[in-house]
Amino acid sequence: MHEHEVPTHMQAEDRVLLWFTFPQLIALAVAAALGYGVYHYAPVGSEAVRIMLGLGVALTGVGLVAGKVGGRPLPAVLADLLRFGLGASRFAGPVSQLARSEPPVPPRAAQQPASKPMRRPRTRGERMPRIPLGWFRKRHQQRARRQVDQARQSVAKALRGQRFQRWSAGLGAAAVVAALGIVTCTPRGIVAQEPHTQPRLPEEIEFDPEPLIDGRRLFIERLTITPSEATVVLRAAADLEVDVRAFGGVNGRSLVASRSVPLNGSERSTQRLPLSGPDPSFTFAWLDEHLQGGALTLSADQLPHPLPAVEGDLCDLQLTSLEWRPSQIRGEVSSICVASIDDQVRLQTVAGHVNQTETVVLSGDVRALSGALRVSVGSRQTSVPLVADGTTRFQLALESGAGIQDVALSANVTAQLNIPLPDLVQLTHHPARTETFSETVSFPIPDTEEVASQTVTFTVTHPAHVRAAMVARSPSTKSREERLTLTTVIASDGPYAALVAPERPPTASTQTRVPEDELSQLFAQLGWELN
Questions:
Q1: Which residues are 138's β-sheet partners?
Q2: What is the pLDDT of residues 106-123, one digit of tens each?
Q3: Is 239 exposed, middle or buried (0-12, 13-18, 19+ CB in 10 A)?
Q4: Rounded distance, CA 396 to CA 322, Å?
């Protein structure tokens, strides 16, 4: 029988995937999640920059998990370096504390002498007393129990060590990231100082906040919506730092674009922002020169997105651009019209002996198409000719004011149709009649050379019948009308007004005379001398 010994004494973890253990795979998943989070939520406008940042975080996590220096894991090496860098580099106390008045106390192992092995007593030739067999059995049983308990303790200790090693990789990576943040944000001098030498901050800070300045800081002077993007022209009423953000996606809450724009008083800035998802929105948060902030928002119900479209029998209309300005609205409507269309015609198919008229569907050519586009915003309206198979531009003057403008567009289209007609079936009735015919017939007489002739008379009777003939007809002309309607909304803003900050009243400075003894103590604390 062959025997095989399982090496349970080796502290080696199983490789789950390639050369990575299970704790390393968990750490790699955490690094990938952090990289994706940086890519998805980093407040950076360019997508390429966010991709580079996410890759940098992910590669850093992979390096921390899989990297080794001299056979040691990289987190352990970095922990030693941080311990060395963050440890106290100098002793801030007095030198007298370094002197020892008594010698150091030796450790316990040095104080207690080593136990000597017990020697078997000599008997000098005498016989050892007889010990009953039951004593040996009890001693063997106790020894076996001790060995079983020691084995159980060793197995439990090995299991605890394996659990600790499983979580050490992930916890080590998190500890390294936190330590890097501490090293970056904490000066070295503060870490090396003793706790009693660090400055103490007051528990309460008293300050007088600046009074709020009434008035708007940011205005929208133009808003243009196209199928793919929106153009917003901002004008600042004071010196501002504007944070522009565009939201969209499936639920309308994903950050699509983000940028920061500085603006001076009365300066304009044109922002092109993408329209993503069914409910996009824009936010313009500002911080002025007086350290007061606010925000201006264009929600989904204020933006005409998606731009409306309508399909008709004669033409299809699409609003391709809509622009709002403080005094007017502009827009463009593209139209695609048909060249031929089917139409119902009341047509006489048979004439003459029998008359028959039916309603048929015939295809007609569109020879001429005309129409008008009417635009209405509130009580204001205008009308422009509709351009078939092209772009119709319109412009309408408005009254200035902030709010949501309802825009209605209606088009009346008239088409002249030229419908080719099939040939007309003309039926002619012929009544019954009889015809008599006489013919002279000549024939030779047999066995003679004479020729005989005789007049034959016969009658032909024609029954009553109807004869049909195809008669060509000229094409028919017809006029066809159609009405199409488009409705949408767009946001409008109030007129621009510069911000006028109120003048602050001058504050009178108060001086307090300090006694000479208090002044000397104050100078002594600062290390100065009073002359």
A1: none
A2: 554 444 444 444 454 544
A3: middle
A4: 11
Q: How do residues 444-498 score in pLDDT, each as one tens digit? A: 878 777 888 888 888 888 888 888 888 888 888 888 899 999 999 999 998 888 8
Q: Angle at which helices 22-41 and 47-66 pack, to 10 degrees?
A: 160
Q: What is the rounded distance in angstroms from the CA atom of residue 215 to the CA atom of residue 496?
A: 11
Find which of 126-130, 134-138, 443-447 is predicted with most confidence, using mean pLDDT: 443-447
What pLDDT sits at residue 509? 57
The mean per-residue pLDDT over the stretch 145-158 comes to 68
3-state secondary structure of 165: helix
Q: Which domains does the chain have, with CATH numbers?
A: 10-87+139-194 (no CATH), 218-302 (2.60.40.2550), 309-422+473-492 (no CATH), 431-463 (no CATH)
For the stretch 172-206, what's the b/e string if a residue is b when 16 or more beta carbons lie within 10 angstroms of its beta carbon?
Answer: bbeebbebeeeeeeeeeeeeeeeeeeeeeeeeeee
Mean pLDDT computed over every residue of the chain = 78
Q: Which residue's structure tokens are 């793919």?
A: 228
Copy the structure tokens of residue 9. Answer: 């004494």
User: Which H or E element spans position 486?
Assistant: strand 476-492
- Contact 328/397 with Cβ under 8 angstroms? yes
313 and 326 Cβ atoms separated by less than 8 Å: no
Residue 212 main-chain phi, psi, to 5 deg: -70, 140
Contacts for 292-297 with beta carbons within 8 Å, 24 or more apart?
A: 292/210, 292/212, 292/213, 294/217, 294/218, 296/218, 296/220
What is the spatial distance between Cα 164 and Cα 161, in angstroms, rounded to a whole number? 5
